[in-house]
Structure formats: C-alpha cells, structure tokens
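mind reviewing this stuff:

——
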Amino acid sequence: MIRRLVAASLFAAGVAMAVEPPQTPEQWQHAAVADIAAAYQLTLDNHPGTYDPANPGFASHLAEARKLGLQLGAQVRDGAGYQAALAGFNAAIHDGHAGVEFTSPLAAQWRWPGFVAAWRGDSMYVYATVPGGPAAGSKIEQCDGQAVAKLAETNVFAYQGRSEERGSWWITAREVFTDAGNPFIQLPSVCSFSKDGKRFSMTLAWSPMDNDMLRWRQQSYNGDVLPVGLTEPRLHLYWAAMPNFQPDEPQRAAYRAMYEALRAHPERYQQADAVVIDLRGNHGGSSLWSQDFARALWGDEAVAQHERANLSKQQVWWRASAGNVAHVRWLAGMLDGQGRADIAAGVREVAKQMQLALERGDKFFVTGDKRPPAATAEVQASAFNRPVYVIVPGQCASACLDALDVFTMFPNTKLIGAPSSADSTYMEVRYQPLDSGLVRVVIPNKVYVGRPRASGQFYSPQIEVNDLEWSTENFLKVIEADLKTR
C-alpha cells in the first residue's frame, strides 16, 4: 500500500528562471491575471478532479475560482494586491492541495496592532501584547460593530483556510489582526474586549511587525515545538516529538533512532505509564515516518492487519499526464537517495503504469483490487496496550492526518489538543513554477477512492486543550490528570 510519500516536489519541463518582479501597477495587474489563467489551465490539465467521476462539478467549480480570481486580478495595483488576488483564487478552489503557492515573500511590509491573537474553543483571545495593549488572556468580542467571528469570515477565510474546519480556526482566524496589505478588505479599527468580567474598548494602532510578533505568532498555535526525538520527561512516561514529516538528514537520523529504541526495548514501553506522540508544529509531508513509528510501537503485523481491515476497499487513481508521470519518476529517485529502495521500486512501477495509461489515452492508472474485498480475518490485538496520547495541532493535515488514521486504529490511543484540519481526497502534490517567478502551481497526482476518512473530515480530540499557552508543561499536566482517571 503506497501512502503519501512526500509533501511535494518541484518538477517542471523547464524550471522558471529568476525574473525581474513587476514594477508598475499595470505590470502587477498583468501578472495577476496571467498567473491565475495559467494556474487554472495547468490544474485543469493535470488535476485528478477534472476526470473524477465522483466529483462531476470539479471543472465548473474550478472555472468559478478562475472567474473570482480574475475579477480581483483586474483590480490589482501592487504586490499586496497581487498576493490577495491569488489568495482569493486559492480560497475559492477550497483545497489545500490545489491552487498556487508563493515562491518568495513580496515587498509589502506586514503590520500588526501590537498584539497577537489566538483562537481557542469558539472564541478569539489576546495571546500576547506589547505594553499598553489589551491584556493577554482578554477575549476579543467585536470590532467596528462586527462579531470577531464574522470578521474572520470576511477578512480571512475569503482568502485562506476553510471555515468549516474547526482546526482552520485555530491556525487561520487569528490573521484578522495581521495586515498583509490586502486592498480588498477593511482592517478593524476599534475593538471591544472582556477580561475578568470587565469590558473595555481600544482603538487599534497598526505598525510594522517586529520580532516579538513573529515569535508570538508561532507560539500562539504551536507552543514550544520540540526537536524530533524520544525523551523521558519523567520515569515511565515517554515523549516522541514528531514536528516535521518533511525531515532533513539530521531529523531522518533522529526518526531512525526512535524506531530503533522502540524495537530494541519493547518491554520498556509495555511497562510505561504512557507514550506521548507530539505533533505540534507538524504540517504534513511523508506518511512513511508515522507508519514506521507505528510499526515499531504496536508491531509490524498489528499495523498491517489493521490497515488490511481498514483499507480493503480503498483504491488509488493516479492521474496520467506527462507532468505527473515525470513527478512520480522523480519521486522514485528521491526515495532511492533516502535509502528506501523497497518503496522506490513500487513507485517506479506506478510511474511505468501511468506512462502506459497515458499512451493508451486513459485518464488514470488504478491501484488496488477492483473486485469486492474478501472477508477480512479478525484483527488480533497488539501486545502494546499502554495509554498513548497524541497531541494534535490545528494545522494537522495531509500526512499528519495519515498519522492520525494509523494511530487511532488502536484503542489505547487518545487524541488531545486541537481539532485537526482536513483534506480532500486529492493527494501527492507536485509544484510547477510559472513564468512570472512569483508563484508555483500545486498539482495533486492521485485521488483516493473509498478512503475510510471522507473528504473534508477532520479529527476532534477527546481532550481539547484550550490553554493559551500550549507548553509541554501544560500538556504534561493534562496527561497526568487523565492518567489518574484511567
């Protein structure tokens, strides 16, 4: 079973050369219109959704996104407007695995009102503030007569994220109080707050962002992100930090060391009070890392049995286009370079079959058994049955969700933290640069058919941690308290 193998690759028939960015309002407008048109066409030509029988409205939905993007693009006068128009196009597509991604920051100076906000539960709070600002912990009630949640819908979710996903509120709604120069919105001016039963109002003073803002922004939704590795914060409690499924070589070595420790001393973890899997900071990447961890903790055969039972009806339809075939060939070579020759061989075969499908004129190469599945044997319980806590951040999507799919197959797993984000069924993306040099198009290569987790489905934690500070110390307190009840 080939799961998500890599977050994305950079592949194009010709990688775009660095070009001079637009200088005049007319040039910025032209770049916005041209890039939206090109992104639309590349997506239409390569995206699995174009020919997905389960999604007959895909092409018309994509055309509506283009229409909205071009309407915004026609009003662009500068780099900030360009960015907002492309972001509006992305938001209309409504899939984190499609649209465009900016290749470099534009010149616009971001501003903030002297505080950073954070979403917890169903409300917005002041996470941290400069002297004289609203006190940390203050609830933000409304701005300019609008409820802050309504303001998030119009000013933020119209350009990024998906408001129907609770996890997206954790990571995205706070951008109400970030000014990226979007000319199509009205920044909040006067806001009301409440704290300790008292209400007060403040006029916001917007100023260029500084290092405090950058640090607080990251901490406001991730907390203190730990490096990849397995530690023991107290006797018999083990903490596996997995902040990144796109690891560099030192991180890959740290992952391998975790697996080796789990396999070398299974009795140590079988006697543990708990094992904590910490996904704070994780935005996805390759699902191989979480699969290997699960096999080392619960056992190879236990994971294999659960996957056979859960995925018996799932197929993978690979979209056969020239660019997609080239990407999968590149992917096989990348896996070879990472020492995953066993996986690379299967990927290389997928590329071969995609090419044959392309030559036949088929739109897809399908993997998975097309016949009704045979009766599945009863799944045997894993020998590892100690409590497992998985810390879920709001931005958990893509391969991070694949990790939750695997971990939650076992009844000793409990999710804590935030609601996750969600995926469509379109996966395994590649990037293709556009001639402007400002953005690259995000193109998924495959679609899952019959996946147990539905398109748009997210995970809700059994224990939602709404502390403003997502510190390791606070999570330890939550876990210790829950262990006393088990």
Notes: The first strand starts at residue 99 and ends at 102. Residues 111-208 form a domain with the Pdz3 Domain fold (CATH 2.30.42.10).
